[in-house]
Design brief:
The complex is a heterodimer of chains A (170) and B (555).
Chain A (H helix, E strand, L loop, with lengths): L13 H10 L7 H12 L4 H11 L3 H10 L11 E6 L2 H4 L3 H12 L12 E6 L11 E3 L2 E3 L4 H15 L6
Parallel strand pairs in A: 1-2
Antiparallel strand pairs in A: 1-3, 3-4
Chain B lengths: L32 E4 L4 H5 L2 H14 L4 E4 L13 E5 L2 E5 L7 H6 L11 E3 L5 H4 L17 H6 L4 H7 L3 H11 L11 H10 L6 E6 L8 H8 L1 H15 L3 E6 L4 H16 L15 E6 L9 H8 L23 E5 H13 L1 H5 L2 E2 L2 E2 L1 E8 L5 E6 L4 H8 L9 E6 L6 E3 L9 H6 L8 E6 L4 H15 L5 H18 L4 H18 L3 H5 L1 H10 L22
Parallel strand pairs in B: 1-2, 6-7, 6-9, 7-8, 12-16
Antiparallel strand pairs in B: 1-3, 3-4, 4-5, 10-11, 12-13, 14-15, 14-16
Helix pairs in contact in B: 6-10, 6-13, 7-8, 7-10, 9-10, 9-11, 10-13, 17-18, 17-21, 18-19, 19-21
The chains are: A alpha+beta (170), B alpha/beta (555).
Chain lengths: 170, 555
């Protein structure tokens, strides 16, 4: 599946963007699948990719940039090695998500939407992960985690950091 | 390229979860004990994968042959991971199972259904399930979601086969007669929408399924897609045949990677079995189905914003008219239905419209899939006829709060739904009764809050959420929500309270009356419900000591 692939911040590659465009050539209105796949390949959608996509799909760069900037999933610069998303919607609020978000920002020393200085973790907020009976919910890359308290959060962070540095995972 | 071009020629007979060693075909070792461990994302979020791995490892060490089937979840989420063992006497459930329980389960004879501290008994006898009427969720948790054999053995495709014998207008009439109304929130009669599309001129028509389940407290679409994906495939094919559409789009939010993966796998299998493609079940009907993945925008759950998104644009809503039924996707007549609306159709065609319309109250026919969420002791799926009271749901099925503290409020219907105080829990849950008390059913989410909730913060959050997620097309929503946060901040700070309350009321009226879609139009609903039922939380004059300070604006 074509999804945000955290940490795959490889160099821009004209060839890989071209390959994504070719793979979606016959799809009607395929801009979102194209953008998902480019981000999956390159870790972000920078202005060079925007220019290539616009030219290929006969759109203006403004139109493509408008789509990239509208959707929270798309990023213009690469994320950290892991993306940790904390649900801050009502069901999770009822089980302490605000306190968890505060713990996360304080313990990682970054704001929501920011990446830690070592590049290991990008912390984000999300509104609903569909795990509302096992709140608070967190998603680490594409792995959903339920009933997250600050202790469990710290363990998730430790594992993500170990993964980023190539150490055996705790 | 049609999706069929990339389909493999043969269908895997049984498909396990890709993260696990493929579970063996039972015909290879008929003596193996079948053990069900859910593959539902919620179950996996509390360790179902690790439990499955550990059970396999422990059983193999003990020389026991087990066949692990990854089923959907029964919807008793506080018991997840819920492990079920197939015994000659039927299925026996244990839960919630942690990976470290695997050894004692195997050694104490759980593979024969014997006593163990985690033994729950026959899952279907659980009080939580016994009172339910599962039509849409009938198969979820019972079967291997990606087994076409399981699907057919449990009544799958009967509705589609029946539809293929009918005239288009007869199918539509059947859906009209069932009384089915849109489960996404608006409650518009599904059959009437279908008839509009059927009668609309045009050679090219589409079926779009809205699986952008963004409301907090709702997860039934996700569980259905992960637990019974063929049902949704069958339903979309029926819809296509009914209105003369040969193509469908299933728009799933990106926050649901498990549902995306399961639906894509199910669609591949459906093509391989001839349930999709140029000749549906060998007939002259063609239907192609594409999955589209959202990109994190709540507004794309609004039907016209979703169409814009599928077309490859910003998820900015369209003014209506024209209705999507007449000018929808790519300007063509289009059915846009929620997952649960569509998923009700196969059972309606199987058992007949009359059987469905006999259930329910007033103009709310059939069953509603409620989702108990938040601070609730027994959270999960409750599919029951309309008319159940909120008290039955929260105190009966839900068992009160998870924290053990008194329940203070319940938000019904997502972030745009009303907060209902505990003294109104006798309210029957149907479209009209809820509307008459200033609330709405929405997608059936019920989020429970205990008495530590600060309703002033919840009112602020309603406006803040709208400010974050507004598509920006209309002024009342785009600016009104920002002004709403500001005015609520002044009220909470005790600044010119009376003047600002009057201003908030006026702002709510403007947003309700002048917004283009439900996002801005319904954001005042939670705010006004708090003003009506919890005014004391807006009257304190400052933030309650000991609570978390109000968050900064989100972005």
């Amino acid at each position: 599946m074509s999804e945000v692939a955290p940490g795959t911040s490889s160099e821009f590659s004209e060839e890989r963007v071209r390959a994504v465009l070719d793979a979606h050539r016959s799809e009607r209105g395929g801009l979102l699948p194209v953008l998902h796949d480019i981000q999956g390949e390159l870790g972000c959608i920078d202005e060079r990719a925007v220019a290539m996509v616009a030219c290929d799909l006969n759109l203006s760069q403004a139109e493509v940039f408008g789509v990239v900037s509208f959707y929270p999933d798309f990023r213009a610069s690469p994320s950290g090695a892991s993306v940790i998303r904390i649900c801050r919607a009502e069901a999770c609020q009822s089980m302490g998500a605000e306190a968890l978000a505060r713990h996360a920002t304080e313990s990682l020393g970054v704001g929501l939407g920011d990446t830690t200085a070592d590049g290991s973790i990008t912390l984000e907020q999300v509104f609903c992960l569909g795990n509302c009976a096992l709140s608070p919910a967190v998603m680490v890359n594409e792995k959903l985690v339920g009933r997250v308290d600050s202790e469990r959060f710290d363990a998730l962070v430790a594992r993500a950091r170990a993964r980023a540095s190539g150490e055996p995972q705790p | 390229m049609s999706a069929a071009d990339s389909m493999p020629g043969s269908v895997p007979r049984r498909v396990g979860h890709p993260d696990l060693p493929g579970h063996p075909d039972p015909s290879d070792h008929p003596d193996a004990v079948r053990v069900f461990v859910p593959r539902d994302s919620a179950a996996r979020s509390v360790g179902a994968d690790e439990v499955a791995e550990e059970l396999l490892r422990v059983a193999s060490t003990a020389g026991r042959d087990i066949d692990i089937v990854r089923n959907g979840s029964r919807g008793m989420l506080w018991l997840e991971p819920l492990v079920e063992v197939v015994t000659p006497q039927g299925r026996v459930a244990y839960g919630p199972v942690a990976p470290q329980d695997a050894a004692s389960l195997v050694s104490s004879g759980a593979l024969e259904g014997r006593e163990h501290p985690l033994l729950l008994g026959a899952p279907e006898d659980a009080a939580f399930l016994a009172g339910q009427k599962r039509l849409t969720f009938a198969r979820v948790g019972l079967v291997d979601p990606l087994s076409p054999e399981d699907y057919i053995a449990t009544g799958g495709l009967v509705g589609l086969e029946r539809a293929l014998e009918m005239q288009r207008s007869q199918i539509v009439d059947e859906v009209v007669a069932s009384g089915l109304r849109g489960r996404g929130g608006a409650g518009f009669p599904t059959g009437i929408k279908w008839r509009t599309v059927l009668d609309a001129p045009g050679d090219v028509k589409f079926v779009c399924c809205n699986a952008d389940e963004g409301d907090s407290g709702t997860y039934a679409d996700r569980m259905l897609m992960e637990g019974d994906p063929f049902l949704l495939v069958e339903a979309m094919v029926i819809a296509g045949i009914a209105v003369g559409a040969a193509e469908g789009y299933l728009y799933i939010r990106s926050e649901y990677p498990g549902a995306i993966e399961t639906m894509q796998a199910a669609i591949t299998i459906a093509y391989g079995n001839g349930w999709l493609g140029d000749s549906v079940l060998g007939t002259r009907n063609a239907f192609d189905l594409h999955v589209r993945v959202g990109a994190g925008a709540y507004i794309c759950g609004e039907e016209t914003a979703m169409l814009e998104s599928i077309e490859g644009r910003r998820g900015v809503i369209r003014a209506k008219p024209p209705l999507p039924a007449l000018q929808g996707l790519f300007g063509c007549p289009t059915i846009v239905n929620n997952v649960l609306s569509l998923a009700a159709v196969p059972s309606i065609l199987t058992a007949g419209a009359a059987a469905y319309s006999e259930i329910g109250v007033g103009t709310s026919r059939g069953t509603q899939v409620f989702q108990l969420a938040g601070n609730v002791r027994y959270g999960g799926i409750v599919e029951v006829p309309f008319g159940v009271t909120l008290g039955d749901l929260v105190w009966g099925y839900g068992g009160g709060s998870a924290s053990g503290r008194p329940v203070r409020a319940v938000q019904v219907g997502g972030p745009l739904g009303a907060y209902i105080p505990a003294d109104r829990f006798d309210t029957p849950m149907d479209y009209e009764t809820l509307a008459s008390v200033g609330a709405m059913l929405g997608h059936g989410g019920v989020v429970v809050f205990d008495d530590t909730v600060d309703m002033g913060r919840q009112a602020r959050f309603a406006m803040e959420f709208c400010a974050t997620e507004s598509c920006g097309k209309c002024t009342p929503c785009r600016l009104g929500s920002v002004r709403g946060v500001e005015v609520i901040d002044r009220i909470l700070a005790g600044d010119d309270r009376e003047v600002n309350l009057a201003l908030l009321d006026e702002l709510c009226e403007t947003m309700t009356d002048a917004s283009l879609c439900a996002m801005g139009g319904l954001t005042p609903m939670p705010v006004r419900s708090i003003l009506a039922h919890f005014p004391e939380d807006l009257a304190r004059g400052d933030v309650r000591p000991g609570t978390v300070p109000l968050p900064e604006s989100f972005r």
